[in-house]
Specification:
The protein is of the alpha/beta class. The protein folds into 2 domains: about 15-250, Type I PLP-dependent aspartate aminotransferase-like (Major domain) (Aspartate Aminotransferase, domain 2); about 255-375, Aspartate Aminotransferase, domain 1 (Alpha-Beta Complex). It contains 13 helices and 13 strands. Strands 1-9-8-5-4-2-3 form a 7-stranded mixed sheet. The protein has a 3-stranded antiparallel sheet with strand order 7-6-11, with no helix packed on it. Helix 2 (about 20-35) packs antiparallel against helix 9 and helix 10 (about 255-270) runs parallel beside helix 13. The longest helix is centred in the C-terminal third of the chain and has 18 residues, at about 255-270. The chain starts with 11 loop residues before the first helix and ends with a helix. The structure holds pyridoxal-5'-phosphate.
Length: about 375
Amino acid sequence: MGVLTNTPLVDLPAQYDTMRAEIDRALAEVVESQRFVLGPAVEAFEEAVAERVGVRHAVGCANGTDAIWLVLRALGLGRSDEVIVPAFTFFGTAGAVWNAGLRPVFCDVDAETFNLDADTVRACWSDRTRVVLPVHLFGQMAPMAELLELAHERGARVVEDAAQALGAWQRTPGGETAFAGASGTAGTVSFFPTKNLGGFGDGGLIVTDDDALARRLRRLRTHGGVSGGRYDAVGVNSRLDALQAAVLHAKLPRLTGWTEARRTNAAIYDEMLAGISGVLRPAVRSGNFHTYHQYTIRARARDRLRSHLRQRGLETGLYYPRPLHLQPCFAELGYRPGDLPVAEAACGEVVSLPVFPELGAERAKRVARAIRDFYRAG
Ligand SMILES: Cc1ncc(COP(=O)(O)O)c(C=O)c1O
């Protein structure tokens, strides 16, 4: 066996190395222009994302959490209106709901995909439900057709948290391709550096086909101002930085190839981890194009498995260790352990394996072999 080098969970320096000149040129152009806030670099990137997702508008903002907050504010909901969110997701999804003055209603998830579905959402419905906020977790879309049908029947909106799923898509019942973010009232994206399309800092964006909503979002991200010094609503300062837009725009043409590389790594894991008792591989629902932001398995003796891998220089991630309904900051909502059993069990079993595009087949195989060895040794 050769010398073992460390295998990180993501390797951003490796990605930068593959396109240093293009990114440096894009950054230099913004520096030359001295147009740092909104302006042409941001507009060009917004247009490129809108085209890629297949919607009329893309509105850049400071991060993916603000993107959710901005949409909820722009919908003009009332205080303590309810928003159904998964209990198993990144904290920011629920934090944005809370900070928008709304009440998060935590919903259990599908045990195999970790996503919301119509059954779990129906169980959380009340006469104050105004929005269903599915998260396309780990790069696979939640079942949009059934969620949209349920929400439309009951007069609520669907806002897609596509923070982890730019480029993911799904076949609609009519046989069309719906990209993550494109079928709800709006979809939100994060460009946190480790995302499949990551900036050199924070960044976010909202996609929507709704012209009036897009106009409100553009105002709300600049304090709520209209023009001539007039403010109709109190917004925030949440703009996509032009330097970030330039980096992201330079990277955007690579996203398809990077996604393919992630899918190749995932296919190696799928094959090599098949049949290991103690490991549940990620399920992909029919008609879904999974972009593997994370390749997350459920593993028996998860914490021991992680140390076994760590000792061999193989890093893993833990998304997410604690369900949102049991976070101390939401104690006043009155949830108890046992309320959302699937989300709670998932937190004790999940582990994310390195799946980043530059990983390569050899390192993916080494991770898979180390997992096999762990369970073989009992
Ligand atoms: C599912 C999900 N929602 C929201 C966010 C928030 O995005 P950001 O970190 O850009 O605020 C993230 C990313 O971190 C995320 O993974």
